[in-house]
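Hi R.,

Here's the input for the guanosine-5'-diphosphate complex you asked about:
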Amino acid sequence: MRVLARFLAAATHTSHFPAPTLPEIAFLGRSNVGKSSVINSLVGAKMARTSSTPGRTRSINFFEIRWPGKPRPELIFADLPGYGYAKLSREISQEWPTFIEPYIMQRETLSLCVALVDANVPPQPNDRQLLEFLNASGRDFLLVATKSDRLSNNQLHNVLRTLSAEYPSARLLPYSSKTGAGARNCGNRSGKSPSRPHLRHRLPVRNF
Ligand code: GDP
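And here is the predicted structure with guanosine-5'-diphosphate in place:
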């Protein structure tokens, strides 16, 4: 997918959220799961910061997405703060109720949550917590197993089976930001405009 992305806002409070206009896709996951890399590979540019410092992005970062040839942006990506580092847990527990939970629970334009888990790491308690939270929120969500290039086909198959047993209600998609594997399920990488405008409707995912 070749799209044009523009940074809109970094929000650390609900009052910083941009006006709710376009459909939004939120990206969530533990720090270092590969979230920035996924966003950057989807938009084809370094929009999200790839973090060498754990949990460095402490705001919800909003990016407006426009397809080439289209006059207006059609979608917003929301990059949520990574979680899961013990030393930051207090900070996270303070942030979550102030702006992250309200964003997920109340944002009227939030169309899809993309929950990322590392395909190379067994399911973690905080991943489980996130998935349970998303289940309970009633939000449409997609579970993406990142860094799939680090595994052989057999290993990846086993990981996907484990994840689908662990999270039976989740729609599951393996993805590699490095090789682009899985990207064809996320959209058209030919550079042509997609036939349908919203990524939400362009994610044919498989259940394993
Ligand atoms: P974030 O903290 O969740 O935003 O994670 P980053 O996108 O910064 O990635 C964390 C680390 O994982 C970096 O060293 C990346 O180069 C690496 N990484 C991210 N995605 C992939 C992937 O698809 N394949 C491989 N092999 N490494 C990846």
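One thing worth noting: DSSP finds four helices and seven strands in the chain.

Cheers,
M.
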